[in-house]
Amino acid sequence: MSDLFLILYSRKGCCLCEELARRLTCLPLEELIPPIKLRVIDIDAADTPKELCARYDTQVPVMLLGTSDLKKMVELPRVSPRMNSEGLFLWLQKIITKTMGSD
C-alpha cells in the first residue's frame, strides 16, 4: 500500500488555518493505523497551481486524505475548531479506517 498523506490547504494569516495546522503538527500522526504524513500547502504560494487557489479560495482550511501514488484522494469534512487534540486524533483514525480501509 502507498503511504498516506493528510493534505491541509491553508492560507497564511488565516487564524483557523494556522490553528488547525498547529494542532495537526502536534499530533502523533505516525501512531495512526496506518500512519499518515502531513503536508501543509499555502494556496496563495507562488508555486501553488492557480486552479487549487481558485477551488479552495473561500473554503480554507480544507483537508484531503490521499495515497502517495494519488490513486485515491478524499476531501474530508470540516472539523470543529473546538475539537480537542484527542478528539481530532480519534476522528482522523475513524476517517482513515472508513475511507482507506476498503482498498
Which terms summarize this structure?
single chain; 4-stranded mixed β-sheet; 3 helices; alpha+beta; 34% helix
Question: How would you characterize the overall build of this protein?
Answer:
- By secondary structure, this protein is an alpha+beta fold.
- It is 34% helix and 22% strand.
- The protein contains three helices and four strands, in the order βαβαββα.
- A four-stranded mixed β-sheet has the order 2-1-3-4, covered by helices on one side.
- β1, α1 (15-26) and β2 form a beta-alpha-beta unit.
- The longest helix has 16 residues, at 85-100.
- The N and C termini lie close together (9 Å).
- The relative contact order is 0.24.
- The model has no long low-confidence stretch (mean pLDDT 91).
